[in-house]
Amino acid sequence: MRKFYLALLRYKDHFIFLIAVTLSLTLLLKNDAPDVLIIRGKFTDYFSIISSPFSWIKSMIILQEETQLIRQKNIQLTLELETLLRAQEENNILRDFLGFKRESNLKLLAARVVNMGASSNLSSITLDIGSDHGVKVNQPVIVPEGVIGKTVVVGNKSTIVQIIKDVNYRLSVRILPSGNAGILQFISDDICEVRELQKNTEISIGNKVVTSGFSQIYPKNLPVGEVVEVLNERGSFQKIAKVRIKPKLSTLLNVFIVIEESNEVG
């Protein structure tokens, strides 16, 4: 109490000024005289000018928070839209697969791609079915667009497929409508080459390329791709056809295995 009394004596001028200002403001705000109203209006104007920057800062903070919420909502909606689009695309693919299976004369077993490039020395994909589902080694693997490879390693519940882009993959094909047969091998991207074609055979850009049926692995007339360029080898009785394969190997989700007895490697 003594400390409070000493502080009061030391700062008595400040306390008296504070009390006087408080009483003055109280009387000013309660007085309705015309002169007082004018002073009160002036005071309100000055107070408004002083407080406006603080109001602006508060508005900017609120606006920034709302903008952040809108951005978060926009990102969330974008992700949901992408999910819906992917689901729709996958549904379209599955619908095409079901239609292809119904219309095909082949005995097909549907499988899902669970891994890409499982082997370091082989361009391959891994499927979610195996011998428990009737899969065997050297069975053709296709999609509605065409051939993509063959089974090479079969486990109980999974299968590794050597795909057409593997450097050691070879496929006996026929070019339509000429019927000229040759051996197809992958070059780069989605381009393959067909060699051992007779030079005097008419081959044109846009001709369809299908399996020849010479191998016991691949039934004949499975789609492979189309001719995009024809090259004549100098000093040779053969020509080369560059072929763009139809299946998009990098985006494979679902495939079919052609179920049939197969003992010969094609």
Describe this structure in words.
The chain is α+β, with helices and mostly antiparallel strands. It has a domain at 108-258: Thrombin, subunit H (Beta Barrel). 37% of the residues lie in helices and 30% in strands. The protein contains three helices and twelve strands, in the order αααββββββββββββ. A six-stranded antiparallel beta barrel has the order 1-2-5-4-3-12. Strands 6-7-8-11-10-9 form a six-stranded antiparallel barrel. The chain is elongated, with a radius of gyration of 40 Å. It starts with a helix and ends in an 8-residue tail after the last strand. The model is unreliable at 261-266 (pLDDT under 50).
What's this, in brief?
By secondary structure, the chain is an alpha+beta fold. The protein contains three helices and twelve strands, in the order αααββββββββββββ.
Features:
single chain, 266 residues, alpha+beta, Thrombin, subunit H, elongated
Superfamily at the CATH H level of the domain at 108-258?
A: Rod shape-determining protein MreC, domain 2
Taking the alpha carbons of the first and last residues, their distance comes to 106 Å
Low-pLDDT windows of residues: 261-266
Strand-residue fraction? Answer: 25-35%
SSE string: HHHEEEEEEEEEEEE
CATH class of the domain at 108-258: Mainly Beta
- The computed structural class is alpha+beta
Number of strands: 12
The major pleated sheet works out as: 6 strands, antiparallel, barrel
Write down the overall mean pLDDT: 79
Approximately how much helix is present in the residues?
Answer: 25-40%
Per CATH, which architecture of the domain at 108-258? Beta Barrel
At CATH level 3, the topology of the domain at 108-258 is Thrombin, subunit H
Strand numbers in spatial order across the main sheet: 1-2-5-4-3-12
Number of helices: 3
Overall radius of gyration:
40 Å
- Gross morphology is elongated
